[in-house]
Amino acid sequence: MGSCEVGRAHHIFGANRVQLRLTGRTCGATLRQMFDPEEILSAAARIEAALPGAQAKACLRAVPNDRAVFSGHLNDVPAVFRLRLPEALAREEIAELRRMQPHMDGPDQIPLILAESGPVFALSMAAGTSVIQQMESPDHRTVLVARAAQWLRRYTAPTEQTSQGQAKRFDLWLRKAAEQSRRQPHPALAALEAQVLDKMRTLAAPAVWRTAICHGDFHPGNLIYDGEVMTGIDTGGSARLPLYKDIARFAAHAARRNLMIGTSRRFGVDAATLDHFSKAFTLNDEERTVLLPFFVGFELLVRVESAKTPAWRLEIAEEMLRNYLC
């Protein structure tokens, strides 16, 4: 475990993040995540034992009994280490990276696999900073969203296909949205969400829609950009999904943080962002007017605000819901 000492772990609370500082290691996690410092130390030790030459220094994310992500070095090469449980999920994540590697090169990339052992694997460190950080500058948003749309188009293209008979699947998505919306703790938002769900039910299920193996958790925080190369990270949730689900996830995630290209909203999110993705995917009229609003509505309902959500985020959430109903 190198210079890390369990007894010297302690929490330092910041405005938006919790910093777990250890002798020789640091760990960041959202305030909503609960973790035991000793579990973090144990995960780091497991990574270093599994991969010779590994130094897991900074914990980027920790989800108990699920995953731990560290940055550090593998034989002096910058690397990201992932411990994924159970091991079968690690195998799936590695297989997906291998499947996509031949398709993602040049300006649109995914991390390279450097080493693997059981539930532990090391990936190349992406150059640049996260797109969500760069989008804090309004001047950069147009380029960043266009590049994000390009990256997703390349990722989904090899497996895209058209599926028929979507009525039952539409109903499944509606039920999931309704289940999540029932957890909304804010009465004003809950009332608006009920109306959003009603509006989603008025959208007729299309005869066909396009699906592909999508990222699964596509948002600006899972993209790294250095001005030339955009790298998509955290592809462990990849699965065959309607194309519009990833687009809606990106647009809703950005809009919730008020990361808008312009001032015009459509379906509650940034209209210009939707236009960039519509262009990249050559969406037809039905996809733009039925499927995209359906999945944006889904994203508005499944990401439930907590009782501790700050007032400014609640105001944005209400604005998004009201705009969706226009």
From TrEMBL:
Query: Per its record, what are the GO molecular function terms?
Result: kinase activity
Keywords from the UniProt entry = Kinase, Transferase
Q: Using the record's annotation, list all stretches that form the Aminoglycoside phosphotransferase domain.
A: 80-234
Q: Pfam families, from UniProt?
A: APH (PF01636)
Kindly provide the name given to this protein in its UniProt entry: Predicted kinase, aminoglycoside phosphotransferase (APT) family
**Source organism of this protein record:** Poseidonocella pacifica
Lineage here is: Bacteria, Pseudomonadati, Pseudomonadota, Alphaproteobacteria, Rhodobacterales
